[in-house]
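wait is this the right file?? whatever heres the structure
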């Protein structure tokens, strides 16, 4: 081969290599732009799931009811159960099917251990396209994602599969969170701080039944079949809420469905587990942290009875408990942001806190305040009821006219308060 021929081959090779480098840089740049520009809700939610060496024996699926109803860190501390809350706001049974299929495919491709149990909340509305974006924008394009888009996104299939087509013009809206999003560190759970009176109708009679929507039944069937194909046990639940009475009746119909399909189903609306609708709701549809703790405890007992492994003596237990320690500090920091007495009293009813509460008798006329104080007493906190005409005497010497004063300590560290608050007329607070 002569020198000119060799030179031509090298020249063409160099051109091809340059072309491939340009294409490679374009693809990398496109992926980076996509990650920066798209909705971050899905990335914040699932990043912890994908970047961990932990195994999860239990996966939770559902909507915001489950996000605000199940705490994996509490579940590990109390029962040693390793779990992840995959639920997403506004994503119900239909989206849950595709989400579970996608998650299991990823677990299998990475040779990770399969979960032993999937827990699905049967509450379901129809998914909106924005809600689907919240769940799916963090996932790369795949056959499962395309199938989801075809069946759930109607005429928005392209933007679901290629979200950059929707978000490409967001340059002028970018903020710090777009480049360094705050990742959920609670294994998918979210705490909503509030205390709300319930809606108009709460159905707790299991015999009061409606009909199951046919499409919902179809997707629960598909989830059951998917779980069975991987040897995973499916459990159905319904987490308490106080609106949509027609859906509460539909939830009762799942007793018959579960019996027909040999599934475990618990409708916690009908169970005597200590949920008080006057003080355990954030709003009419979602639990606050106190309500979440009750549901998590009941699920822990259920899963323990199903012999899900207790991993508190395992090789990852120390990391779980370190993260639980961070979770305690997260809750203490939240206290410092609360400005309403009822929310504060709900929040200090916490297994890791001890509180000294002074309260004027007149404040107990409020039904929520009265119930919250009673619960604090039952939790072995110190409560002093002060008669009218007497002043409260805060332990930290704070001066002022208060109806309620709380001094809060982390258990095991009662030398100095973690927080303290004085409240007037049960609503406004005076800064520490």
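ok assuming it is, sequence goes like this
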């Amino acid at each position: 081969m002569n020198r000119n021929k060799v030179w031509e081959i090298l020249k063409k090779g160099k051109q091809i290599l340059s072309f491939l480098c340009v294409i490679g840089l374009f693809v990398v740049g496109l992926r980076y732009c996509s990650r920066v520009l798209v909705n971050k809700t899905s990335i914040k939610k699932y990043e912890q799931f994908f970047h961990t060496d932990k195994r999860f024996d239990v996966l939770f699926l559902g909507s915001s009811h489950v996000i605000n109803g199940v705490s994996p860190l509490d579940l590990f501390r109390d029962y040693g159960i390793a779990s992840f809350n995959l639920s997403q706001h506004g994503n119900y049974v239909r989206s849950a099917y595709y989400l579970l299929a996608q998650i299991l495919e990823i677990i299998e491709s990475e040779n990770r251990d399969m979960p032993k149990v999937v827990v699905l909340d049967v509450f379901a509305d129809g998914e909106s396209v924005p809600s689907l974006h919240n769940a799916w924008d963090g996932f790369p394009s795949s056959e499962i994602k395309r199938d989801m888009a075809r069946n759930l996104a109607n005429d928005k299939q392209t933007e679901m599969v290629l979200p950059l087509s929707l978000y490409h013009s967001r340059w002028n809206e970018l903020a710090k969170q777009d480049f360094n999003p705050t990742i959920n560190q609670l294994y998918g759970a979210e705490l909503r701080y509030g205390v709300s009176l319930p809606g108009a109708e709460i159905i707790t009679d299991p015999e009061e039944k409606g009909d199951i929507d046919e499409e919902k039944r179809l997707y629960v069937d598909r989830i059951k079949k998917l779980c069975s194909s991987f040897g995973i046990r499916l459990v159905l639940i319904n987490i308490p809420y106080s609106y949509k009475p027609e859906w509460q009746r539909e939830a009762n119909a799942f007793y018959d469905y579960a019996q027909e399909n040999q599934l475990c189903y618990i409708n916690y609306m009908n169970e005597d587990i200590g949920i008080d609708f006057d003080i355990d709701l954030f709003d009419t549809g979602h639990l606050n942290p106190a309500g979440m703790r009750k549901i998590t405890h009941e699920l822990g007992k259920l899963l323990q009875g199903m012999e899900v492994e207790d991993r508190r003596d395992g090789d990852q237990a120390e990391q779980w408990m370190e993260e639980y320690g961070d979770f305690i500090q997260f809750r203490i920091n939240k206290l410092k942001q609360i400005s309403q007495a009822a929310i504060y009293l709900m929040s200090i009813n916490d297994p890791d806190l001890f509180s000294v509460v002074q309260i004027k008798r007149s404040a107990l006329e409020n039904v929520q305040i009265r119930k919250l104080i009673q619960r604090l007493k039952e939790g072995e906190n110190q409560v002093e009821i002060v008669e009218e005409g007497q002043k409260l005497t805060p332990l930290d010497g704070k001066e002022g006219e208060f109806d309620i004063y709380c001094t809060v300590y982390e258990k095991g560290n009662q030398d100095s308060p973690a927080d303290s608050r004085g409240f007037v007329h049960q609503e406004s607070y005076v800064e520490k």
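The beta strands are 58-61, 83-85, 117-121, 233-238, 264-267, 353-360, 382-386, 404-410, 419-424, 428-430. so i think its the right one actually
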